[in-house]
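The methods section describes the discrete structure representation at length, but only in general terms. What matters is that the chain and its backbone geometry are given together, residue for residue. Nothing conveys this as quickly as seeing an actual entry. For illustration, here is how one protein appears when written out as sequence plus structure tokens:
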Amino acid sequence: MNGTAEEARGAAREPLAVVPPRERGAIRIADRVVAKIAGQAAREALGTLPPDASRPHATVVVHRDTARVRVHLELGYPGAVGAHCRAVRRRVAERVNALVGMDVPEVAVHVERLHLIPAHGAAQGRTR
């Protein structure tokens, strides 16, 4: 056998240099996937919705490792609208960061409709 062929085979068996994980490739997570996670997180934060309310949904703009989220929801009235919005912002940012690894510097909450919730024990129909 030729000495150069043996050297070539030996060189091929040398361990490869360790490449840090960030330099091995790229992961692209679609905006709609992050939006789905954000919508589910908003539902978790709100708990029980009024019977005729539609489920929260989100739109997302992703740029590198950052997601800007806009959540659209309907709430019961009377209720603590500000407290619900804060809970949604916090939960969405936490879940997107935990599940996707993206920073969420902005969660804009749009309350599109308030649903009147009758008080417990309130009379139904007309009274005279």
